[in-house]
Design goal:
UDP-galactose 4-epimerase, domain 1; Rossmann fold; 2 domains; homodimer; alpha/beta
Chain lengths: 318, 318
């Protein structure tokens, strides 16, 4: 198979790229390196089956041209800057909604009918059912990020009905592991490297979060593609457990053998639109036979280990 | 109050404009007359409280400038060409999603915090719960129109959380009555005027549809504004009954005293993405004390009467 992967230099998509290449597939990777890193493609670039397109998804001609001959699209590029949505509301709209439309239209131009899309548990807003299943009560959006991902999901679903596309939509919890470069584990690790004597935490530290290890995430994506065959295939991806931000602070401090003074920003949410509790009911994918190999704690430890072994990642990120 | 109404020359918004002016409010109406009709504003234009801006919502400067001094926005402009979404997918995206973003940003520029939005029962896709309540299971989109309205809803909701807006989102069934200018009652009436001996019907005529009379719709909107005070107020608007397309054919034929030969296109849906059954659970607004005055049959009769008395409407529409 020949896959077109948007955002191929990003955290999740670069791991997916590596996996698909390992399995002998061809990959055309597309990235503008606004947040993706060339270093994440070091393995991929060694493969004769990998083609890298350094371009922006707003360049519709280049997207369309680059997609030629591909069998399926993984649309994983996104503005993942969840936290600062209200600072620049156009960013989510342009990078998550419009770009998805451009990708769909490019697919239509080449008669490519199959797409996998990286969505998010944030689209459930302040969920009223927890753990939250895929068919939860129709949610109200609480963040521009969630709203933009929901808009993209809706477009993709409408293309399935209107143009006979087939879609795999994955609603992720936060993902951790190799090449993880943003989020609170990253922030905490970085703070403690600079000054192990104190740690600032947004919110009250009691925000409950669910995490999934990146390799488990890639396994789940591939599992769903293999074992589900509807027109629109929507899956929550996460673990069956959750932790508190304070738990992960404990694990990180244990690993680093530090005992910082903890300063909390206070309040239940870390920022406007931050959901104090994202916990997804993943029984739909579990029923297909997939299950995560790593616990949340193991995933956090794996992440710290990765950051420890790859100090350059921290220098690349502010 | 001074209201800003987008799509003020359209079916629903022009009736709303008249109502608000009758009540002594000021209205700034904005329309590009791509589908709206100057004739629908004949009453409004006689009022010193009405200001008409002939402009496109893509002209962000003009939108922002025109909105100055307004207290609340009714965003009712839309690409309502539900049927031909797949012919030009960009239209729904541009006219329903982007334009909503421009309206929200213009509001933000003027610190206007209150918005009412014309959404649609189409966002429930192929609903699994019928009648469909506002908190139905998270639906899958089946039309570009529905997807674009859902995207707009999501944006509005995110602005409520992120920028402290307050929103009234109305998910309509099909609306009938004075100034109704598209949909099957209009099509049938027009066909029968040309040739009363035969009638072509998309689908099998058994599509069940729910209709609401325009004046009942305006009543409901005003009722919700008066009696609901949440951050995000979402209401289905419809009647507690439904009819089959074949029922309305009978009523129209009775009114016109014709007995045409009926030719059916066949199939359960009229077109791709046409939902064979939109029937909304309106108990949320009913519990606030509103109820429709006209039955579906009365609404259809009122519509035929209007079309009969205003033959120019038919000439204006292809």
């Amino acid at each position: 198979m020949k896959y077109f992967i948007t955002g191929c230099a990003g955290f999740i998509a670069s791991n997916l790229t590596d996996r698909l290449l390992q399995e002998g597939h061809q990959v055309v990777g597309y990235d503008n390196f606004s947040t993706g890193l060339q270093e994440f493609l070091e393995n991929a670039k060694k493969s004769p089956n990998f083609t890298l397109i350094n371009g922006d998804l707003h360049d519709r001609d280049l997207v369309t041209q680059s997609m030629q001959g591909c069998d399926m699209v993984f649309h994983f590029a996104a503005n993942a800057d969840v936290r600062f949505g209200t600072d620049h509301p156009n960013k989510d709209l342009e990078q998550n909604v419009l770009v998805t439309f451009y990708v769909l239209e490019a697919m239509r131009a080449h008669n490519i009918k199959q797409i996998a899309f990286a969505s998010t548990g944030s689209i459930y807003g302040e969920a009223t059912v927890i753990p939250t299943p895929e068919n939860a009560p129709f949610p109200v959006q609480t963040s521009l990020y969630g709203a933009s991902k929901l808009a993209a999901e809706g477009l993709i679903q409408a293309y399935c009905e209107g143009f006979n596309f087939k879609a795999y939509i994955f609603r992720f919890v936060s993902i951790l592991g190799e090449r993880y470069t943003h989020g609170h584990v990253f922030d905490f690790y970085k703070q403690l490297l600079v000054d192990p004597s104190k740690l600032f935490i947004l919110g009250n530290g009691k925000q409950r979060k669910s995490y999934l290890y990146i390799q488990d995430c890639i396994d789940a994506i591939q599992w769903a593609l293999k074992h589900s065959d509807d027109k629109v295939n929507i899956f929550n991806l996460g673990t069956d457990e959750y932790c508190q931000v304070n738990d992960s602070i404990g694990w990180i401090c244990d690993y680093l053998q530090v005992k910082p003074e903890l300063n909390y920003g206070g309040g239940e949410s870390g920022w406007i639109g931050d959901n104090p509790f994202i916990f997804l009911d993943c029984s739909k994918i579990r029923k297909l036979g997939w299950k995560p190999k790593l616990s949340i704690r193991d995933g956090v430890m794996q992440t710290i280990k990765y950051l420890h072994e790859n100090p350059w990642v921290l220098e690349n990120r502010t």
